Amino acid sequence: MLFTDVEGSTRLLSDLGAERYADLLGLHRRLLRGAFEAHDGYEVDEEGDAFLVAFPGAGDAVAAARDAQHAMATEAWPGDVELRVRMGLHTGEPLPVPPKYVGMDVHRAARIMAAAHGGQVVVSEATAALLDAAPLRDLGAQRLKDLLAPIRLYQLEIEGLPGDFPPLRSLHRSNLPVAAWPLLGRERELDEILMLVAESVRLVTLTGAGGSGKTRLALQAAAELSDVFDDGVFFVALSPLRDLSTVRATVAESVGLQADDDIVSWLGSKRVLLVLDNLEHLPGVESIVWELLEGETVVLATSRAPLHLSTERELPVEPLRDESAMELFVSRAAAAGRGVEPDDTVRAVCRRLDNLPLALELAAARAKLLAPTAMLQRLDAALPLLTGGAHDLPERQRTLRATIEWSHDLLDQDVQAAFRRLSVFRGSFTLDAAEAVADADLDQVATLLDQSLLKPLGEERFFLLETIREYARERLDVSGERDEYTARHARFYLARLDANRQEIWGSRWPELLAWYEDEEDNLRAALDLLTVTAVAEAARAARRLHVYWLDRRAYAEEEERIRSIVARDDLGNQERAALLGCLAEVALRIGDVRAQEAAAREGLSFAEPGTLQRARLLIDLGLVAVRGGRPEEAVSLAHQIIDAAEHPLRALDADSPTDRQVLGLRFDAANILGEAGHTDDARALMREIRDEFRRTRDENGDAVATTTLAQFDLYDHDYEAARDALTSTLATARRLGRTYMEAEALRDLGYSLLGLGRRDEARAAFLELLDLATQDGLTVGGPLADSLDGIALTADHEDAGRAVCLRAAIEAMRRAANLANSPMLTDLERDFEQPLVRALGQEQWEDEHAAGVTMTVEETIQLARLLAAP
């Protein structure tokens, strides 16, 4: 199949006028048809300035495309106005519906053409595989705007014609999920959404019954608009959420930020499209949507009811029109293994299902077993009976519910049981989870997939559409199995957290973090249930989740969830002390010293003397003391911690969680001693710890301990020793893929190079740190502030003014984000900043400082890069 289209036809029509453009279009048609006919092309469709032509072989299609582009390029166009045609080639098995073709391959061919530029011929991997010697340039795997799975594309190189084109118009800066099939029959609604956005409408809400196709339409609109929004289009699935307080964090994570980043501030400087999917179950969500309409942000929402905001334009998503419904049914039936004609029987089936997309899909999934005539007879018998008892529902929802029930009743009892039990999952799940929790075996999952009651998500995960999940949940309630299987779900995820506990600091950490991100919704559901039904297990789950929450910077969610568990009267003292220790660490991360001390002291009132948990709380108090300017108190606390962790290091078992805790406690005690100025004691203890890591072949622990020893060298101004150690640990961090360790090593390496007077090398290290801190989008965090601090300190005297401005901006950033200064900065600030102040004079210093305080984060980064430029 060869699709063609004139690039910029709307603009040409406007510039040239209808009569002149029609003449050029006629010439274009003659040139292309001549090339098509010369290579046995069959003209399937011609509309406006676009062609769809079918060829008996890939070589014929390529030859026709090549000759057509040559003809267009060598034609003497009247008035020196040349029409440029983009072309897409794809090979597949479309369903013939004379005189046209229908099916997924037709849509994919059109999308390949739409990604091309005028004069360019883009070829799919399926077509390229059939060509023996065609000159093709590999353009790599591309996500097209049909939202189907990525496809590898090639450019046909045509001798004598230009071969350099801009990047393809493919999907970029997006997390839009892969769709199962192209969007069909929604051209009018899609055009209306695009028009509303073009008219600067900031909030468009698609409303309609479940199963009407709101989500698929919203996703397609976002894909079509991806070129318009420079900072990306992002899908935010809200259906798994049950708590309004998690909405902002979910939006932040969907755009690539951390959970506790200020998403509203981030949006203020961006041009972003947010697709907020399934809002109706979150009362009060409209206030958050209003906050998100910041800067040039546009929100496309799906809901069963409008939000009633002043900026909102509601667009009802009605059932499909007859022809579109039939096309969808025919396409999905073909995918199920039966070719059917779009005749009166199919029309009757579609109308019997109210032309609802989800109902059509569910029915078409049965096409392999039931011809349309038999299907219509069954629907006529089933739907009146099934809809009769649901008078409280709108007619369309009654029809959809009946269709789901009809599909469900055709399953055997074992598959029905698996179907209802899978409703305990929130979000998506893996096959092993389905087997362990819902007793769903591979064959049952395959049956549910075949019948469109279950959807694949990538290659290894599955999910239930929310409308179908609601029905399955009802069936679970009716069966009386809800308590049993929700408890099994919670225990399964608690067991996984327990199993992951020993490996969170090892080489599997990136894998475990990815698991947490995939299972976040299920973990929330498990913790919700345990908090109500088994508080001790809830406390254990929260402790296991603590490290994930910290990594994701989900501080607000962690505090809220832990507070709800701590408030329970039936929680044991040791569990309470452990959770308060988690809260103290959260406070440490956000720089709230008072909250850190309060949580630690409250935890100590519950912790038993001599326990490791008590030692953990003493660490928080030690950190408060050392950073509060009370070094002797900090040293005393550090020795109490060491006494509590009294196991001799040589006896530690590397596989024992308790022994690993002992090692961690000593590690933290050594840090407190180092920051309090007792570097000899700190160094001796840290060397013992490093040797233990080496004995157990823990490469990650060895690198962390070596980095910490280098920090002690920095405290003692032994910059050369610090540099040598950090150069080694930086290489290890990169090899292990430990980004946070790499960031710490780059920061401290920069400080050591500054201490050695090697400013250019130090500047390069801090610039690398800046790139690392911003590689996944703009974030305000420790590594970012450290990199900016370092760049400011490497400034030459001629850049004194900009350096002072930068330092002031960083100070303001740290205050706003509650970020403490690095302990290494104190001496360096004195040694390197004071000469800059003297070079400027007090008045200019104050002017530059005042200017820096008002700078945005983006402006601060831009100034730092300017200072760091060679």
Structure characterization notes:
There is one protein chain. The radius of gyration is 32 Å and the shape is globular. Helix content is 59%, strand content 9%. It has a 7-stranded mixed β-sheet, with helices on both faces. It has 38 helices and 17 strands. The protein has 870 residues and is an alpha/beta fold. It has 5 domains: 2-156, Nucleotide cyclase, GGDEF domain (Alpha-Beta Plaits, 2-Layer Sandwich); 187-316, Rossmann fold; 322-410; 588-694, Serine Threonine Protein Phosphatase 5, Tetratricopeptide repeat (Alpha Horseshoe), CATH 1.25.40; 698-868, Tetratricopeptide repeat domain (Serine Threonine Protein Phosphatase 5, Tetratricopeptide repeat, Alpha Horseshoe), CATH 1.25.40.10. A hairpin with an 8-residue loop joins β8 and β9.
Can you lay out the helices and strands and say which pair or pack?
Elements: E1 2-6, H1 9-16, H2 18-38, E2 42-47, E3 50-54, H3 58-74, E4 85-89, E5 95-97, E6 100-102, H4 104-114, E7 121-124, H5 125-128, E8 136-142, E9 151-156, H6 187-198, E10 203-207, H7 214-224, E11 233-237, H8 247-254, H9 263-268, E12 273-277, H10 285-292, E13 298-303, E14 312-316, H11 322-336, H12 344-352, H13 357-364, H14 372-387, H15 395-409, H16 413-421, E15 428-430, H17 431-438, H18 442-450, E16 455-457, E17 461-463, H19 466-479, H20 482-500, H21 509-533, H22 535-552, H23 555-566, H24 573-590, H25 593-604, H26 612-627, H27 631-644, H28 657-675, H29 679-695, H30 699-715, H31 719-736, H32 739-755, H33 759-773, H34 782-793, H35 800-817, H36 825-840, H37 842-853, H38 857-868
Parallel strand pairs: 4-7, 10-13, 10-14, 11-12, 12-13
Antiparallel strand pairs: 1-3, 1-4, 2-3, 5-6, 7-9, 8-9, 15-17, 16-17
Helix pairs in contact: 1-2, 2-3, 6-7, 11-12, 11-13, 12-14, 13-15, 14-15, 16-18, 16-19, 17-20, 20-21, 21-22, 22-23, 22-24, 23-24, 24-25, 24-26, 25-26, 26-27, 26-28, 27-28, 28-29, 28-30, 29-30, 30-31, 30-32, 31-32, 32-33, 32-34, 33-34, 34-35, 35-36, 35-37, 35-38
